[in-house]
């Protein structure tokens, strides 16, 4: 993980709807991962799409564990 590419984005948990800042490592490129909600501890799917041209975040999607992202 590259600390200079670790940015935080404001999101809401798809379960409890609580807002929190999600740290995203853009140096990994586009990828999918799982994070636990810091409030209700539910497993959240995270889809991160990074532009191959400039390395900037294109899409950040969160979903429940039974959803297809």
What does this structure look like?
This is CPXCG motif-containing cysteine-rich protein. It comes from Billgrantia desiderata. The protein is mostly beta strands and 69 residues long. The chain has one domain (3-63). 0% of the residues lie in helices and 51% in strands. It contains no helices and five strands. It has strands spanning 6-12, 19-25, 31-36, 43-50, 57-63. The protein has a three-stranded antiparallel sheet with strand order 3-4-5, with no helix packed on it. Strands 1-2 form a two-stranded antiparallel sheet.
Note the run of SSEs as H and E.
EEEEE
Shape: globular
Into which percent range does the helicity of residues fall? under 10%
Contiguous helical run count: 0
Kindly, what is the distance between the CA atoms of the first and last residues, rounded to a whole number of angstroms?
Answer: 24 Å
**Largest sheet properties:** 3 strands, antiparallel
Spans where pLDDT lies below 50 across 5 or more residues: none
Number of strands: 5
Within the largest sheet, what's the order of strands? 3-4-5
Helix and strand content put the structural class at mainly beta
Give the tally of structural domains: 1
Gyration radius, in Å? 12 Å
Oligomer: single chain
Strand content: over 45%
Average pLDDT metric: 92
């Amino acid at each position: 993980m590259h600390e200079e590419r670790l940015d935080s984005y404001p999101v809401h948990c798809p379960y409890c709807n609580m807002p929190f800042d999600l740290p995203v490592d853009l140096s990994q490129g586009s990828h999918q991962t799982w994070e636990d909600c810091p409030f209700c501890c539910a497993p959240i799917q995270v889809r991160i799409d990074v532009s191959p041209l400039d390395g900037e975040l294109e899409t950040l999607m969160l979903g429940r564990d039974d959803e297809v992202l």
